[in-house]
Amino acid sequence: MAVCVETAAAELRDVYSSGKTRTCEWRVSQLKAMLKIAIHHEKEIIEALNSDLGKHEHEAFLHEIAAVRSACRMALKQLHRWMKPEKVKTSMTTFPSSAEIVSEPYGVVLVISTWNYPILLSLEPVIAAISAGNAVVLKPSEVAAATSSTMSKLLGQYMDVSAVKVVEGGIQETSALLEQKWDKIFYTGNSKVGRVVLTAAAKHLTPVILELGGKCPAIVDSDINLTVAVRRIISGKWGCNSGQTCVSPDYIITTKDYASQLVDALSSELERFYGKDPVNSKDMSKIINSRHFERLSKLLDEDKVSGKIVIGGQWDKANLKIAPTVILDAPEDSLIMNEEIFGPLLPIITVNNIKDGINLITSKEKPLAAYIFTNDKKLKEEFVQRVSAGGIGVNEVTLHLAEDTLPFGGVGESGMGSYHGKFSFDAFSHKKPVLYRGFNGEISARYPPYSPRKLKFLKAVLSGDIIGIIRALLGW
Amino acid sequence: MAVEAEAAARELRATYATGKTKSFEWRSSQLKAIQKIVSLHSDEIVEALRSDLQKPEFESVVHEISGVSASCKLALKELNRWMKPQKVKTSLITFPSSAKIVSEPFGVVLVISAWNFPLLLSLDPVVGAIAAGNAVVLKPSESSPATSSLLAKLVGKYMDASAVRVVEGAVAETAALLEQKWDKILYTGGGKVGRIVLSAAAKHLTPVILELGGKCPVVVDSAVNLKVAARRIIAGKWCANSGQTCISPDYIITTKDFAPQLVNALSAQLDKFFGKEPLRSKELSSIVNIHHFNRLVKLLDDDEVSRKIVRGGERDQSNLKIAPTIISGVSTDSLLMDEEIFGPILPIITVDQIEECVGVINAKEKPLAAYLFTNDKKLEDKFVRNISAGAMIINDTVIHFFEAGLPFGGVGGSGMGAYHGKFSFDAFSHKKALLKRSFAVDISARYPPYTPGKRRFLRAVVQGNLLDILRSLYSCW
């Protein structure tokens, strides 16, 4: 497959050089084609997601299909505006002149997707790349096999295959792709492979966007509307692919005093949502495969953790299902507190003072998202000030992703770069400044032979010192 | 030196964790300290630059000292505004809510500087890092040792050593620094070391800005004000550190017909600027060291090249000076067209039709800058649309560097990321999304058990269709 990858990259480069992908017409046609896929093949997509992830139609529609449609529509609506060069004021330094910043595509880009939102995390970056005028190769995750093959079929059917290609496969194909030179790479996944991608990109000086993960904490203060808070937490955790979501709350921090109320509220709302037999609830996704299932059961089985389960803990290995499980005060050195859980297990860590929660969070790697439920303005401010994360939600979890005016991306271990809304267009654009001058307005002070007077004049110009300029011009 | 690098990183991390560098007061105090350095010690700086590069005082003041001073001034003036979170609109989906984008420092950052503008390319990024609230280690280039040691002395004297550190040294020290974990790295230099920096950064998932180089082309059309064009080309080439500048014109493209006129114009202006004995001119910088001098002389002495010299070619090894040299009718596969020249040699490529310049330029790596002299709007349009470069200027060279409203950075082989002006602040800031909601409105359609009715409602909300929303609200789920 090294041969077809090299061929694919070369073909795309030729097509890109022809200039076709840069035209507004081409971009619009491709965005419309993508929209068609998301509208006319909704059923097929939902089936593929159900096959790969046991994802309920509700989640499949809301989190994946609706989001893809929305991204297409926004790009179609805004494309003209986004493509317009941005005029920039120029200063005395280059007077007389005018300037603008021109957005141009990078060229031929690679999007490597992942398995948990296989439609969304494949197509949204592709939409971004196309709207910015790039040719693009998409490598969907082999772990979500049905969706990978559905996307390959549909994109092959609707899109311009000379400039938008899908390369399916596993590690070998990904490695072969990473050997090629790309003008930008967009990777969604984990930090281990993120490092591999960055290292491969370094050889070609390729800029990279990494959308990684991390342990997203949620602080729950007392004196809040606990029912609403708990519903939102449940929705962001178990209502998002059974917790297999990069921005799901990974663990909760609350006070020792408040913990039991929180556990009770979680317990009663979980029952309202998923019934008395949650393992068999059709409203929750399954675990993606037996490897991850084993990984998660191992987290639960660890001695220091298994005795601390306060809700759930049941599982069905045959159907790869784990019930919503809450663990109270797992030790700091337990496995579950040291890796991104990415599943339906929710540890609650208790502290004496809710502020200690902030110290706990800042002692760990920067997460993709951090949340706080509170009505205490001061605590809110301190949280926002001190906690560095990709994004922050106050009294909400995961919903900041739905706002396309907010950049979505990580920092530190949770990634670099961002996208969504116009940030998507910008992510795949090189911002090229162009300065326009005429042949008038010659400043001979620039040229040798140098003199103290010329120096004085230029110093004044560079610091915008109008009086200094006049003085220098008058020879003072 | 591994110990020094590790100690610097560790101490700065401890300082950063206290939150000190995030305060407006600290940032402001450090920016003022940099201003003091360049204003109170300009004589020493000029001396150091003369020692390292034989840089004329004029260039030292205009390019380096004024450059740093202007950056500080702008940052001090705008800092409050830059630091303010940016309010953004929210949609029906999260109603009621408010959202902002908050700029926060990355943490502890590393700036690796270069030798050709050793003051500017050290302090300008440091201004950005500090304005954004980071702690910063600066590694100046060992190839400009006088400036490096002056920077170490002055930064040590005026700045907060617990958060702003200079680490001097060469390859070993740089390697030791690159072993540490940084929250951002800004590197200015060549593509080979750029790759090394990126690979080292990959281990720690550190984002990097690379300010590299490339072969910056100048296309010269006929029907231009040739005198002005020639002066501006000379200014960007030989009045900028003897062509040892990442954005200096590297080579010229013009038509076969026009080349002789261009050569004459350049020659005439060169006489005016540097006199008949340019090697003796104090206005010409020297080549930084014997290694680069030999590299450039080798290019000049190549058989193919030496017989095409139309101006200059003289050299003075004892003073490491090479006269402004123009070579005409160079072929695109000549040695001179292989690598970035980074010196006072200017090849001219001739084509039949000026439009062919696009093909010549696009056959190479994307340069840090591309220039065009023309009065032909069609050519101008073709140039801007079809050539990718870090930046472009029509009818001038290098001067975009001083426009703080324009991002300065490369693309492809010439780098990634950008800085200058507010772009410096942004380069060293993480833009953190913030969404605030109240407990007031909660839409139960989000929650299981999932029903078709809930789905209808959510569809309508997602589509922003008010009528559908109302319709679905009236059916039960």
From TrEMBL, chain A:
Organism superkingdom: Eukaryota
Protein name as catalogued: Aldehyde dehydrogenase
Gene Ontology terms for molecular function: aldehyde dehydrogenase (NAD+) activity
One GO-annotated biological process of the protein: response to abscisic acid
InterPro entries named in the record: Ald_DH/histidinol_DH, Ald_DH_C, Ald_DH_N, Aldehyde_DH_dom, Aldehyde_DH_NAD(P)
Enzymatic reactions: an aldehyde + NAD(+) + H2O = a carboxylate + NADH + 2 H(+)
Keyword Oxidoreductase: yes
Family named by the database record: Belongs to the aldehyde dehydrogenase family.
Pfam families: Aldedh
Gene3D superfamilies documented for this protein: Aldehyde Dehydrogenase, Chain A, domain 1, Aldehyde Dehydrogenase, Chain A, domain 2
Domain Aldehyde dehydrogenase: start-end pairs: 5-432
Species: Salvia divinorum (Maria pastora)
SUPFAM superfamilies: ALDH-like
Residue spans crossing the bilayer: none
Catalytic residue positions: 211, 246
Keywords carried by this UniProt record: NAD, Oxidoreductase
From TrEMBL, chain B:
Source superkingdom: Eukaryota
Reactions catalysed, as given in the entry: an aldehyde + NAD(+) + H2O = a carboxylate + NADH + 2 H(+)
Species: Salvia divinorum (Maria pastora)
Matching Pfam families: Aldedh
Any one GO molecular function term: aldehyde dehydrogenase (NAD+) activity
Keyword field: NAD, Oxidoreductase
Active site, UniProt feature: 211, 246
InterPro entries: Ald_DH/histidinol_DH (IPR016161), Ald_DH_C (IPR016163), Ald_DH_N (IPR016162), Aldehyde_DH_dom (IPR015590), Aldehyde_DH_NAD(P) (IPR012394)
Protein family membership: Belongs to the aldehyde dehydrogenase family.
Keyword Nucleus in record: no
Gene Ontology BP term (one): response to abscisic acid
Protein name in the entry: Aldehyde dehydrogenase
Record's keyword annotation contains Oxidoreductase: yes
Every Aldehyde dehydrogenase domain range: 4-433
